[in-house]
Design brief:
The chain is mainly alpha-helical. The protein has two helices and no strands.
Length: 159
């Protein structure tokens, strides 16, 4: 019998490649999301330290007004950066969600082709087993006929 050949092999290859690309894109999106989270956390730490320094300067009677203005401006700049980082974090989350949805769709498409492969291979095995069983049955039937002919003494068996 001829060997098994999956009729959708080309489709399976394309779907696996698409799934791998989608997974790679999702991993990149997760790294970007993690970087955005780290940037927000770092800005939070810097902002907390800057406001603590500003509060300390306000409470210090010897602090100059220029120093207070400089610290306040620095805190405002950090707040603007924090808002920008929040926007980048939201965009990174949305990107990760989109790329995960693409990966999930590609994975499901790949699973559908894999299920076709399993069904085709199962049908091939059943057909192979039927053919093998038929050949064995034919061989057994010939053997029985030969044994019966020998017992009956019909003469030569070469004809």
């Amino acid at each position: 019998m001829k060997p098994f050949k999956f009729t959708l092999q080309a489709v399976q290859t394309v779907r696996r490649r698409d799934e791998q690309r989608a997974l790679d894109a999702y991993l990149v999106a997760l790294r970007q999301l993690e970087a955005a989270k780290n940037r927000v956390q770092e800005l939070d730490r810097q902002l907390e330290a800057a406001w603590a320094a500003f509060r300390a300067a306000v409470l210090d009677p010897a602090a100059a007004a220029a120093d207070l203005a400089r610290l306040h401006e620095y805190c405002d700049r950090l707040l603007r950066q924090r808002r920008e980082a929040d926007g980048a974090l939201k965009a990174a989350r949305a990107g990760a969600t989109r790329t995960f949805a693409r990966y999930l769709a590609a994975h499901l498409a790949c699973l559908a082709v894999q299920e076709c492969y399993v069904r085709q291979h199962r049908a091939y095995r059943r057909q192979t087993q039927r053919l093998e069983q038929k050949a064995l049955d034919d061989l057994a039937q010939r053997s029985r006929r030969l044994i019966q002919a020998l017992r009956q003494g019909q003469g030569t068996f070469w004809n």
